[in-house]
Amino acid sequence: MAPEKKPTVVIAGAGYAGLAAARALAREKNVRVVLINKHAYHLLQFQLHEAAVNKIDMETLALPLSRVLPREVEFVKAQITGFDFKARLVHTDHGDFHYDRLIIALGSQPATFNIPGLNEHALMLKSLANARTIRGHLEMTLSLLKSATRSTPYPIVIGGGGITGVELATELAEGLQGLERQYDLDRRAIKVVLVEAASSVLPGFDQKTIGEAARVLRKLGVDVRTSTAIARVEADRVWLKPIGSDQAEEIITPTLIWTGGVRANALVLNSGLTLGERGAAVVDEYLRSLDYPEVSVVGDNAVVRDPRNGQVVIPCGQLAAQQGKYAAKQIDGDFKGAVVPPYLPHLDGLLISLGSYAGVGTVGPMWVRQLIARVMKIGAEVRYLFNIGGVSLVLARGLLLRHEVVAVMRWLRRTKRAGRKTEHKGQGNAVA
Ligand SMILES: Cc1cc2nc3c(=O)[nH]c(=O)nc-3n(C[C@H](O)[C@H](O)[C@H](O)COP(=O)(O)OP(=O)(O)OC[C@H]3O[C@@H](n4cnc5c(N)ncnc54)[C@H](O)[C@@H]3O)c2cc1C
Questions:
Q1: Which among 35, 36, 46 is the best mutation to test ligand 1's pocket, defined by most ligand atoms within 8 Å of the CB?
Q2: Which of 352, 391, 402, 410 is most buried, most CB within 10 Å of its CB?
Q3: What pLDDT is attached to residue 420?
Q4: 185 alpha carbon – ligand 1 mean position (Å)
């Protein structure tokens, strides 16, 4: 008797959601798992801004998929070009792949909101190639600045004061200190301008978190412009417009890094699936598309509602991985005829780094800030590495954290030294 053919689950995308789905499904003996991704690596996006400002090595963010995928998963390195949901096919530049169940986990891309010139002239921060371009651009700009005579500081404009914008602005402001030394520039030769259309940075966050982020940004000398929109961009200038005003301010700079929002991958936007916020696919309580129950959509590609309050959950890596894992479980349950309860999002907390020494956010019910928040964020990154690759990956990728550890050690030493000096002064005063 011929062996029974296993049903095929195709996973499109090996980011946070796709990798989690593949790893969970690999444990099931009764399915064939095919994972398609355009790169042979899994990108650790959380630290992309650190690579862009030359703080960590670019390569350490690209984890070879061969290192984190179980043997049972068939990996195909290919560019997905479209879907034929009726024929149950995924089209790629390496041929078509048939599926019984499909998980779409293709992530997001920058949303430019039809701002004139933004697409053409802004630097984006979404891929390794983007980070490399930013790094090259900054290096070139700083080396040219050395010979230029400017009466005003050179502005580096960041558009969008959400998590990515705030993390990048603080890293950049902190990193500039080193870069200025390296390029023999005066500290006042450069300034970081963070532009946000909402009335505060980190819109949607609680006041305490917003206040702490604003404090650190101020301390690092970032020029924060809230209630201000980017109105137009040209190759060598950016126009800022305060909300409600007709007057636009012109900033002469070729350096605009756009972190102002994301929308779903273009393949999802053009898929014909029912779309919602951010152009992402609306899913039911089992994370299946409304149009084809055999197609699950997860991560940044999906509009997922929390059934407890009806609100759309934020697109983030932590929930993407959770959704990928859930979709795998739901599909396996379907094959086995088991009932799997609906998806319930659970966010352990959200931490935002504010340079090497500070952070802010929540861990469970706890609100944390400063060094403790930064250390916890590093802890979350290590935990993720451990979950996908065990101790050996944590050790092998220790390089990723090298800079953070050195920075924290330096900070502790400085604090200790400052403490000792105060003590001496105190004693001196007592004698006097
Ligand atoms: C700088 C930065 C910092 C961030 N920091 C945090 C943070 O601290 N905490 C947090 O929770 N979230 C953070 N995020 C957001 C988080 O990275 C995303 O929410 C998360 O990556 C979404 O996971 P995903 O699986 O949906 O998509 P992704 O992780 O983006 O994965 C999509 C995958 O699909 C592949 N792909 C795309 N198109 C194709 C195609 N046509 N063919 C084949 N493969 C394709 C990509 O190569 C990629 O592997 C950050 C994002 C950025 C950019």
A1: 46
A2: 352
A3: 67
A4: 35
